[in-house]
Design brief:
By secondary structure, this protein is mostly helical. The protein has one domain. Helix content is 63%, strand content 0%. Helix 1 packs parallel to helix 8 and helix 5 packs antiparallel against helix 7.
Amino acid sequence: MDGVTQFQHWLLENEAILRSSAFVILILIFVALEKRKPARLPDKTHRYRRLNNFLLLGLNIMTVRLLLPLALFDVALFAAENKIGFFNILPIPLYLNVILTFIIFDLMIYIQHVITHKVGFLWRIHRVHHADIEVDVTTGIRFHPFEIVLSLLYKMSLVVVMGPVAFAIVLYEIMLNGAALFTHSNIVLHKKIERGLRRFFVTPAMHRIHHSAIKQETDSNFGNILSLWDKLFKTYRAVPAMGYDKMRIGLAEFRQPASDKIVALLKIPFTTAGKL
């Protein structure tokens, strides 16, 4: 058994622990940073929004375990064993496999994000994420179970078509989850750090514009990890029209405190705007 195979078997045994550990550690770090120096002061009228965002996360975890017990890692191993997917057919070096997996997956997740804003029934589901009237680290875990399941099926199909090496998928998923927490965190970066990072990566300030209540701003800055895609496909917006301090976050039709209750969040895809 070669080193790569041994590493993949080790990842198979520890993948869940690695992902959950990285997730918990990052959550704690960003919550602490948000308390120390928040970019925007929290809205006191929505007292239980964070708790309900965590409840939604718990429901999503149970839903995925019940409906889709196979992880992307398992799908990648199956594709490798059965020579399915471009990377399992074409003889490319391991390092190139990992690099291309990261780049292609990040592009395809960007495209998926754009589609959720353009296709009616997908937007109704995705509204759960955008209905949050604040953006903080818990917004990065606030998704409807339907969206989580559809997203996982989409990524599974990408794995089957691409055939990436399995540990590259684990690494990308850890980075994607970490990026979701980072870009939604209510933190302020030093101007030089912000400017330098934004050349290549999505930053919290850049992504916060995506959560603006103004539709033209909501339909911008779709990137997840790399800022390249928004700049390349002309969906990049540098600053909000009203400035970061005055920018209104969320959706105009879901602003009452009841909108953040767990039952109301689950009903959003099926409701007329604002009627919960």
